[in-house]
Amino acid sequence: MLENTATTKLAPETKLSAQQQALKQRVLQFCTQQLTTPQTGLFVIEGAAGTGKSVVLNSLMNSLQQARNDAASPFYQTNNYLLVNHPEMLKTYKQIAADQPNLRKKDFMKPTPFINQMTKHATHADIALVDEAHLLLTKSDRYNRFNQENQLTEICKHSRVVILVFDSHQVLKMKSYWDQTKLAALLAERPHEIFHLTQQFRVCAQPATQQWLTALGTQGQLLPRPTDPSFDLRIFADANQMYQQLRQRDHEYGLSRLVATADFPYKLNDQTYYVTAPGFRLPWDKNMDPNITWAERPETLNEVGSIYTIQGFDLNYVGVILGPSVTYDATTNRLKLLPDKYQDHEAFKRRADLTAQQALQVKQQIILNSINVLLQRGRYGLYLYATDPQLRAQLLAL
């Protein structure tokens, strides 16, 4: 089992695949061209979870920051930033920057501080790289001190070139609601290119297993369970038995963690909140370390992680608890999603630009997206438990 930490996976010296290398060269060519024109150019990197989007982005950032010191380079003295609206990912990028001669921690930021800083000083970036762009806000948010309407639009106003990583199946909140139509409208106003990464680097499984995971996580479809000696896919009738097996995998291979859909109460205060099932009770992730990501801290084996602590990261083995909002529709053989039972109320804050029917559909999509994020974390295995009896029985029967 290879060492599998967030920093080693994203480090600039990580060898890129042929497809990733081709993408990197296309992005650099696009940047070179767009820096000579007055209009902001947009390059979109699309790809499902685990296709190596962040690896390419950090490799690009390292090359750009190295080139900014080369008087013969078109990127000489350029002012470049990498932005990510995800505290755990930002933590990882800054950890990497501390060990790299070409990278500076201050060039890695969350989008709102970047926008506010550029606005205050009436300045701009030459190239802004945006990881997890599907987490960018598409409405104002006082809590995050973002007073405009769309973070990507604001980033474009303050950058000559924007490179962004996007996956519509990883949108997790109403206030960052994106779809392909929204993105296409924004792209139509600017010079742009789109590149779709297809090779799966995280889930070490046969195509049938990858299809099973994708069908469940993006369509809510329950396909027959494939037989795959290369990937340990198990359905459990008991949450505690699943947890004990996961502890064993962590003892054997490391980086094995339990995660759950946001179906169990949680508030940001000093209290401890629990994920529960018959015969099972563990606390939600709580005490965030400012320097070490959640999955890499040994004590978090005794907690349950969420989409917010695990999105963007690899595990060796993942155990997923599907909570009460995830049920089963026997007539369609698909997941039936119940937004009223979803406990992440912040994710569902109302938007004035959506009708009630549209809002319901977006809420259901957000729950499905959260399932997709959780299912795609494990490199070598996925253990699955559903609290809904009908769904659990159907999964066990696959």
Automatic annotation (TrEMBL):
State the Pfam families in the record: SLFN-g3_helicase
Gene3D superfamilies listed in its UniProt record: P-loop containing nucleotide triphosphate hydrolases
What the entry lists under InterPro entries is as follows: P-loop_NTPase, SLFN_3-like_DNA/RNA_helicase
Q: Which residues form the Schlafen group 3-like DNA/RNA helicase domain?
A: 42-388
**Highest taxon of the lineage:** Bacteria
Q: What is this protein called?
A: Schlafen group 3-like DNA/RNA helicase domain-containing protein
Species whose genome carries this gene: Loigolactobacillus coryniformis subsp. coryniformis CECT 5711
